[in-house]
Amino acid sequence: MRFIYFMFVGLFMFAVQAHAQVHISVDTVQRYFLEGSKKFQTLRVRNNHPKDTFEIGAELFRYVNIGDRTAKTAQFEPVQGHFLLAPKNFVLKPGQTRSVRLVYTKDYGDQETVYRLAFKPREVEKEFENNEQAQSIKPSTKIVTAAGMLVLVSPKDPVLKVTHVRDENGIVFTNEGNIAADFRFTREYCYSSDNGNGCMELTGKRIYPGETWRFEIDPSIPLRWAISGYNQLRDWVEVDPLSGY
To answer: Torsion-angle region of residue 125: left (phi > 0), alpha (psi -120 to 50) or beta?
Structure first.
């Protein structure tokens, strides 16, 4: 099976040409689907180019190597039938924004599922009166910037659980739950009131189930870090100084 690889960078925007600007953007970098909540959401896709009109095609990929501690990049494969997109293909004129309905069509399982939804534009030479005409044309060979976002589907019973082990050089966090643990909500942590000198910046990240992450920190500094799964699931990781410091 042919796999497609992506790196999580910036605001989940990626360019298929290194010199291209961000022509197409989405109103969010990630969306969540939780059991018991509605199975559809509305996205807004915008053409930021001042002159060019683009034909947009949506493609969906599933994250297949979650928890692989040896992987250096996220590995995705194309999937069909997991979501409905309406419309899946459409035209955006300069400065135009289009609403796209995203509908989850599968049942919720025991583990979290992570997808990447990519909106890939191709420049067109003529304008169309409606989207039916746009879907019938052959795309041009000129490829411009694409926009991507993450879609996370929760398991039936989401569990947010992070454990840790500390040594003289840092802390190793392990996600033992069944959903991703997001460490990016705490930007700064103050462990002392010593005229502001007891504060540090926290460069957080998302840890998927089964994954570990090492955070370098002085062994004498206590740590209290907010983590989040979904909007309803939040917790604190509290780490004492290493014994003897």
So the answer is: alpha
